[in-house]
């Protein structure tokens, strides 16, 4: 069997609006982000989703709470976090994006590499089939979460995932993956 995975970015945080990379910092959603989270919930209302998993960072949890509330159980998980940008946390987003291709195996200063992120997400995915085989889950995550999924389930090399053009977007499209058990 398999698990169908839908990936959605967290809604707009105050750091997104300021153009800085949060990493493991924990900014809240902005007012606009709260509205976008409500739109996510409406967009998914008629679709079967058996569970929602999200990063344990505030912006992902708030997105899941606002979008799905009590309607769908959600499960925060530290393994779905954004990169730890270390000393580059809160650097301009453009600077972080320019660094991504060279951070596949070389961690951000005092932070982590894309390979580190990918291993966290791999560990998460190893646990999913135990309780969710044959089900559809939704993940609310970050840019690094998506890059890891592109590598682990989308067939991209880590180098290709890190080098792809990236625009953070809290509204459609969503991405779908299949995790074979």
Mind explaining what this structure looks like?
With 181 residues, this protein is α/β, with parallel strands linked by helices. The protein has a single domain, classed as Rossmann fold (3-Layer(aba) Sandwich). The chain is built from seven helices and five strands; from the N terminus they run E-H-H-E-H-E-H-H-E-H-H-E. The protein has a five-stranded mixed β-sheet, with helices on both faces. Helix 3 links the parallel strand 2 and strand 3. The radius of gyration is 15 Å and the shape is globular. 36% of the residues are buried. The model has no long low-confidence stretch (mean pLDDT 95).
Structural topology:
Blueprint: E1 2-9, H1 14-18, H2 31-43, E2 51-55, H3 58-68, E3 74-77, H4 93-99, H5 114-132, E4 136-141, H6 143-152, H7 158-163, E5 175-180
Parallel strand pairs: 1-4, 2-3, 2-4
Antiparallel strand pairs: 1-5
Helix pairs in contact: 2-3, 5-6
Key attributes of the depicted protein:
Rossmann fold, 5 strands, 39% helix, globular, 7 helices
Q: What is the mean pLDDT?
A: 95
How big a fraction of the residues is strand?
15-25%
CATH 4th-level superfamily: Phosphoglycerate mutase-like
Q: What is the radius of gyration? A: 15 Å
- How many helices? 7
Major beta sheet, specifics? 5 strands, mixed
Helix content range: 25-40%
What is the C-level CATH assignment? Alpha Beta
Low-confidence stretches: none
Order of strands across the widest beta sheet?
A: 3-2-4-1-5
What's the β-strand tally? 5
